[in-house]
Amino acid sequence: MIELKPPQWKVFMSESRFRVLVAGRRFGKTFLSLIELCRAAWSPGRLAWYVAPTYKQAKRIAWKPLKQMTRPYWASPPNETDLRVELITGGTICLRGADNYDALRGDGLDFLILDEYASIAPEAWPEVLRPALADREGRALFIGTPRGHDHFFDLYSKAQGQKHWATFQFTTEQGGNVSRAELESATHELDERTYRQEFQASFENVNTGLVYYAFDLAANVGECEYDPRHPIFWTLDFNINPMVSLIGQTVDDWVYVLDELVLHDSNTEWASNEFRERTLPFFRNTMMPMRVSVYGDATGNSKRSQASRTDWQIVRDLFGRYKTDYKATFHVNSSNPAVKDRVNCVNARLRINPANGDYSFIPAANSSFWTWSACAGRPTPMGTSWPKSINPIPIARMRRTHWAT
Ligand SMILES: Nc1ncnc2c1ncn2[C@@H]1O[C@H](COP(=O)(O)OP(=O)(O)OP(=O)(O)O)[C@@H](O)[C@H]1O
Ligand SMILES: [Mg+2]
Fold it and tell me: Is the CB of 50 within 6 Å of ligand 1?
């Protein structure tokens, strides 16, 4: 028995010609779309379209459930290439992709759904799809999860209070398909902004173009000192120019970045010597071997051309040479985590929510100031040897962001 949940029902019952539904992930947006399509195509000659960002997506998201839902009412077997279902009532439902939206010209529509609207080219609606509704005075339903202040946000904002338009905004929780425990667990895995966007259907300011948008100079930069009671970590990225690594400590839930090595035209041998130099002052306070957790780039397991040792062998040899000073443990995976996951992880670490005392603080000293500043588009601190012009890392160049945790 198919039944809409109360918030879905609210959207379904709205009589406005144009509706905009902003909802969190797994709210039941696509499920509602299918019911809407069936209703819209329930009379002879009616044509209802479901448009996803791409043809592939339309097929993957909606084709199977659409066929399941409409099976008892098929007039003929569905067309698998055109993704078209003809109903015994004489109406037709088609799935379409907006990846080639110019090719969507030519049909007059009674009803149109634009699912995942934030990912649909902004020109598709005004140039091709809105005109397709004109002769039949068709209706449209825009659906999606927010993606910052983009065309979906503009549409949603402009639609508020407009004649013939209705807007709806629901969280994932209101959809009733995701348990509280699952939502709770997502709050721990995602940084706050991502959680608000994906689960609370909030239009967050994601268009700063910065990867580490959560970085805040005032909150994340401060004095910190080596604490001999805790191990240090060393994170390595084996680029040649620059070769970057961080030295720091994790104490409770806090990550302290004590130092950063940014070496130009460098090699791992040089980085290893530099690590030795930079950690020597830490021995002032203790006679014990220093515990070092080494993290980093999985690509360091392969040999570079003409090299006799891999990058990781070079690092291991360093700790072999200074056996009495360091006790190193290696945490190197066979492959690097996805860039997106790495970035999410850092943003989650940088998040600050003073309201509930939820601080995950990365005070950075010395040159790490530069890296974090650069990421956040802040000016270079005076007196450092780093480049004077700062290039914030734009989202498109996310691969530059190696910070292994
Ligand atoms: N009214 C309902 N009754 C029963 N199951 C439902 C209902 N609404 C949604 N669901 C189920 O909840 C799950 C999520 O629904 P759906 O895929 O429509 O969500 P969505 O908002 O489109 O998700 P996404 O954000 O991933 O696109 C699916 O398994 C769907 O079958
Ligand atoms: Mg969906």
Answer: no
Q: Provide block-wise average pLDDT over 10 residues at a time, the chain (405 residues).
A: 93 98 96 97 97 96 96 97 97 96 95 96 96 97 91 91 94 96 90 89 69 64 78 85 80 75 81 92 82 87 78 94 94 78 70 43 41 39 30 38 34
134 and 98 share a domain? Answer: yes
3-state SS string for 25-87: CCCCHHHHHHHHHHHHCCCCCCEEEEEECCHHHHHHHHHHHHHHHHHHHECCCCECCCCEEEE
pTM: 0.60
Residues 228 and 318 in one domain: yes
**Token reading at 279:** 């950690």
- Give me the domain span that covers residue 120: 6-200
Distance 158 CA to ligand 1 centre (A): 27
Residue 210 lies inside a defined structural domain of this protein? no
195 and 230 in one domain? no
Q: With a 6 A CB cut-off, is 402 part of the ligand 1 pocket?
A: no
